[in-house]
Specification:
The protein is an alpha/beta fold. Strand 5, helix 6 and strand 6 form a beta-alpha-beta unit. Bound molecules: D-malate.
C-alpha cells in the first residue's frame, strides 16, 4: 500500500486557470460556432521577436557542432546570461547583484513554489487576493490546516487587500516569518511605492522574516517613481528573495526562462539558533533536483539584452500596454469601476450589478463569448471582482471590448 501526501487532499479547488480552461473547453464543445476570446490566463499571444529568434537559432546551431556543443548547463545558469542580468536589470537601478546570487530557471511560478523546499515550519502570510500558487504550494508543503467555507486555509495568514486599503497589504502587528509580496500585483494591478516597500523591509528586518518578492511584471511600470526591484530599498538584500521572468516581458510563456535572486546576505535559522545561508541551501536544492535551462533558451533570453532585442522587447510590452488602455477605455465608456491597467498588464474590475465573480464569468462567457478570471479565485477578498488580461491579441481585445460596451450600453 502506498501512502500519499495527504496535504493534497486539503486543496479545495482545482488550480484556478485549469478550472477556467476546463469550463472554457466545455463551452466551446457545446457551442462550436462561438467566437470565444480568451482574456483569462495571462498568457502572451505575440510571436518571439526577430532578435530573440536569432539568439535561439545561434543556440541550436551551436548544439549541432562538436566545437560548440553544450551538455548539462551550469546549475545557476550560464554566466553570459547572468552577467547580462546584472548589467541590464540591476545596474541601472543602482542595485549591486553578484552573478553568484542569480539562479536561472524555467519559470517564476516553479521558483515561488519550490523555494518552500528549503524552509521549515514557519508562519506564512499571503495577500488576499493573491496569485493562487502561493497558497496551494503552502498547503502541499503541509504549512496549513484545512480550508474553511471561504476557502481560506487554517494557519495561513491572509492580509486583506481591498478597495479600502487601495489593494495594498497592511504591515501586520504580529509575528510573521515569510511574506509573499507581488508588485505590480497579480491580480489587482496595484504597484507598491518606495515607502510602502520600505515599511515591509523594516518589518522583515525586525522580525528576522523573509519576503518573497514576485516582480514578474516589473517591465510594465511606466511611472519611474515606483521601485522595479525590492533591492532598491536599503537593506532589502538581508531580507528578500526576488523572482523575475522573461514570460511576460519577452513572450517566453512557452519558451520557459526566468531567474531568482537569492542574496548572499540572506540568512535563515536552524532550531539551535544558528544562522545558515539561504543562497547555499537554494544551491543545494537546485543542484540536487534540477538540471537547469537549456542552452538555446538561455541564448534566446540573452538576446533580449542586445540592442535590437531591447528595442523589440519594449515594442512588445508597449503593444500589451496599448491593449490595457483599450480595455480601460471600454470600461470608462460604460462607467465600470476598475483598477490597474497602468503600470500593470492586469485590469481588476468590480463586477457590475453586484454580480458574484463567477456569475459575471458565466455571463461574459455565455452571452459575449469572452473568458476572464473571477476575482474570488484569487482569494475571498477578490469576491465580486474580475480580472482581464492585456496579453491578448490586439484585434481580439478591441472586439471583446466592443462586445462588452455594446452589451452594457443597452
Ligand atoms: C496568471 O494569469 O495569473 C498567470 O499567468 C497564470 C500562471 O502563471 O499560471
Amino acid at each position: 500500500m502506498v501512502f500519499i501526501n495527504e496535504n493534497y487532499l486539503k486543496i479545495k479547488n482545482n488550480y484556478l486557470f485549469a478550472e477556467i480552461g476546463n469550463r472554457t473547453q466545455k463551452f466551446i464543445k457545446e457551442n462550436p460556432d462561438a467566437k470565444v476570446i480568451k482574456l483569462g490566463i495571462g498568457d502572451t499571444t505575440q510571436p518571439l521577436s526577430p532578435s530573440i529568434i536569432k539568439g535561439f537559432h545561434v543556440g541550436v546551431d551551436d548544439m549541432s557542432k562538436k566545437e560548440t556543443y553544450k551538455g548539462y548547463p551550469p546549475y545557476k545558469g550560464y554566466s553570459f546570461l547572468r552577467n547580462l542580468i546584472v548589467q541590464h536589470d540591476y545596474e541601472p537601478l543602482g542595485v549591486k547583484i553578484d552573478p553568484e546570487e542569480i539562479f536561472v530557471s524555467d519559470g517564476a511560478k516553479g521558483d515561488t513554489a519550490n523555494i518552500l523546499d528549503i524552509f521549515g515550519k514557519n508562519i506564512v502570510a499571503v495577500t488576499d487576493p493573491s496569485y493562487p500558487v502561493y497558497v496551494t504550494t503552502n498547503v502541499m508543503a503541509g504549512n496549513t490546516g484545512s480550508a474553511n467555507e471561504l476557502g481560506q486555509y487554517e494557519n495561513l495568514i491572509y492580509l486583506p487587500c481591498t478597495e479600502k486599503t487601495n489593494f495594498l497589504p497592511k504591515v501586520p502587528d504580529f509575528k510573521v516569518d515569510i511574506i509573499y509580496l507581488c508588485s505590480p500585483n497579480n491580480p489587482t494591478g496595484t504597484v507598491m511605492n518606495r515607502n510602502q516597500l520600505k515599511e515591509w523591509v523594516n518589518f522583515a528586518k525586525e522580525q528576522k522574516a523573509i519576503i518573497f518578492f514576485d516582480c514578474a511584471y516589473e517591465k510594465y511600470i511606466i511611472d519611474s517613481s515606483f521601485p522595479r526591484s525590492i533591492y532598491e530599498i536599503e537593506g532589502a538584500k538581508e531580507v528578500a528573495i526576488e523572482f523575475r521572468s522573461y514570460s511576460k516581458t519577452a513572450g517566453f510563456t512557452g519558451v520557459r526562462c526566468a531567474y531568482t535572486i537569492v542574496p548572499k546576505e540572506l540568512m535563515g535559522y536552524s532550531k539551535d539558533g544558528e544562522k545558515h545561508s539561504i543562497n547555499n541551501l537554494w544551491f543545494q536544492r537546485v543542484s540536487s533536483k534540477y538540471n537547469g535551462v537549456s542552452y538555446p533558451v538561455q541564448k534566446a533570453a540573452a538576446a533580449t539584452y542586445s540592442e535590437d532585442g531591447i528595442k523589440e522587447t519594449n515594442e512588445l510590452i508597449k503593444n500589451y500596454q496599448e491593449n490595457a488602455k483599450i480595455i480601460c477605455n471600454g470600461f470608462d465608456k460604460i462607467g465600470f469601476k476598475y483598477f490597474g491597467g497602468i503600470n500593470s498588464p492586469y485590469i481588476w474590475l468590480k463586477a457590475p450589478n453586484d454580480l458574484s465573480s463567477w456569475d459575471f464569468f458565466d455571463l461574459l462567457l455565455e452571452k459575449l463569448h469572452i473568458v476572464g478570471t473571477p476575482g474570488s479565485g484569487f482569494g475571498p477578498s477578490g469576491a465580486g471582482y474580475f480580472r482581464l488580461t492585456s496579453f491578448g491579441d490586439k484585434g481580439q481585445t478591441i472586439e471583446a471590448m466592443d462586445r462588452i460596451v455594446k452589451y452594457f450600453t443597452n
